[in-house]
Amino acid sequence: MGEPLKPLNIGIVGAGKISGAYLSTLRRLTSVRLTAVTDLDRCRARAVAEQAQAGEVAVLPSVAALVARDDVDAVLNLTIPAVHADVALAALRAGKHVYGEKPLAANREEADAVLAAAREAGLRVGCAPDTVLRSGTQTARKAVDDGLIGTPVAATAFMTGAGHEKWHPDPEFYYRPGGGPLLDMGPYYLSALVHLLGPVVRVTGASSRPRARRTIGSGPRAGHTFPVKVDTHITGVLEHAGGALSTLVMSFDVRKGRLQPLPRRRRDMALFWFLIPGIVVLLLFHYIPLLGNVIAFQDYQPYIGILHSPWSGLDNFDVIFNGDEQFLRALVNTLELTLIQVVFVFPAPILLALALNSLVSERIKKWVQNVLYLPHFLSWVVVVSLFQQMLGNDGMLNLFLSAHDMGNWSIIGNPETFKTLLTSQVIWKDTGWGTILFLAALSRVDHNLYEAAAMDGASRWRQTWHVTLPALRGLVILLLILRLGDALSVGFEQILLQQQGIGLENSEVMDTYVFNHGLIGGDWGVSAAVGLVKGIVGVALVLGANKIAHLFGEEGVYRS
Question: What are the E-state strand segments in 168-306?
Fold first, then answer.
């Protein structure tokens, strides 16, 4: 048997955020060993040495000191793009192999010099990205080679975003020579296109620099502005040796981007016919009944109808403007429940969707989703009955506590726990169903953004904060605006079913107030007045919240 291979000794130059991604890989490999590290910031270099978990790692003051060491066989170049070539050449002259973070160099002349130095010295040079070696690209390459899709004639590649300054604490190097979207993210797309379609023989393109300065959005330097020294919007057409044409768009100047399909008249007409039944229902049961609000200004009597009931002006609104005790009690209870549900119920589907989205197994994910959706289809009669059987005075919980001499826990029928009980019921019933929209939004997030963030050293939490949550922001704001419009409606049927055991003082809300004073008490005009004001307040809240969303740059419910 031959002697075991000696591990390759690695020296790292540059201890920035990207080093974390490489360290996590190095710790898993037994064939390589980190022996030295250097960085302009000695504190960062020491932090990398401590995280390496590879025994003694030398922290050195300069690149020259690192490449001069005998226990460094290869240099891992993680510096900013502008000095990639300088570091690579220094390592090659010292007889060290080099692997660099993308790009190989800031321009073609420097890249040619690096490759020439490696050939002359008989050394190896490598450069990120190596994502083309993953199963997805390799499977696509085999499909192309085997002719499964015929002869490729065209490809498109888009990478558009607002720029890294929103989340990176030190983003200036992205906007200096060697940076920009083409040399930062472009290598992922270009390497895949060349790997799939062959070498590029001709390029046509143009670029621009829409903004001269950028502002850092996070970290200790948030608010600091810096100049942009490279073009940040690039478009191009690549002609491959096999004849295929690739269209490329790389940009740090697109806040939101989505390709829209071309309109198809036949498809749209079919969708319109499907909409007609819904429109009819909406008109019959929502818009036409609005005319009945006229009874808010009448002393309405059902047996003589709207046309013959006497007018009462604004008398029915006295309970609102003069502070009727029962109305104020219902208003306070409604606002308290609204606040509780906005704080606890509204975020629940978001958190659950994030948890479901993190599941790796699609089979388990679908099974969990199906289980979580089921409660939504139960009526409130069934849900309240289930909670009664579980938490009532003679329910399963109290029977268990009594059997173990632990006393009783009064939940059902207890005014002090009533609002908590209502909130728990809503969360149990509707949280799973509420995840549908958020999971749909998450499914549209480009996985390349996660890969790019990971390569730049972002942890799972940072990826969630800077990639996942921004993808949900527009939807969250839209649903929050709509929820505010429904703020004075907090579960009529759910509360009415449990009102008898609690009493009106603790359970009366706006909807049950309208029901109890109108249908039960016969005070139709007052109930209509309260309902009309509730609707007007809801519309005002939607319009106000939508305007605030526009001020923060969001679309909201509609664009003015």
Answer: 200-208, 213-215, 225-227, 233-240, 245-251
pLDDT of residue 156: 93
Q: Which two tokens stand for residue 492?
A: 């009529």
pLDDT at position 504, please? 81
Give the contacts of 462 (CB within 8 A, at least 6 positions apart). Answer: 167, 453
Residue ranges in the chain whose pLDDT is less than 50: 1, 262
Quick one: pLDDT at residue 376? 92
- Do 442 and 472 meet the contact criterion of CB atoms below 8 Å apart? yes
Half-sphere exposure of 254 (CA within 13 A, CB side): 15
d(CA 53, CA 32): 13
Model pLDDT, residue 5: 66
Each as own residue / partner, the long-range contacts of residues 390-398 (CB below 8 Å, 24 or more positions apart, any chain) are 391/421
Per-residue tokens: 174: 């992205």
pTM over cut 0.70: no
Six token digits for residue 80: 């900013």
Instruction: Please measure the distance between the N-terminal and C-terminal CA atoms of the chain and give it in whole angstroms.
Output: 77
d(Cα 349, Cα 128) in Å, to the nearest integer?
39
Contacts of 401 (CB under 8 A, 6+ apart): 407, 408, 409
101 CA to centre of own chain = 28
- Give the chain's radius of gyration (CA, Å): 33
Which amino acid is located at 6 in the chain? K
DSSP letters of 59-70? Answer: EESSHHHHHT-T
- DSSP SS3 for 60: strand
- CA neighbours closer than 13 Å in the CB half-sphere of residue 424: 12
Question: pLDDT value at position 412?
Answer: 84
Please state, in angstroms and rounded to a whole number, the distance separating the CA atoms of residues 481 and 385.
Answer: 32
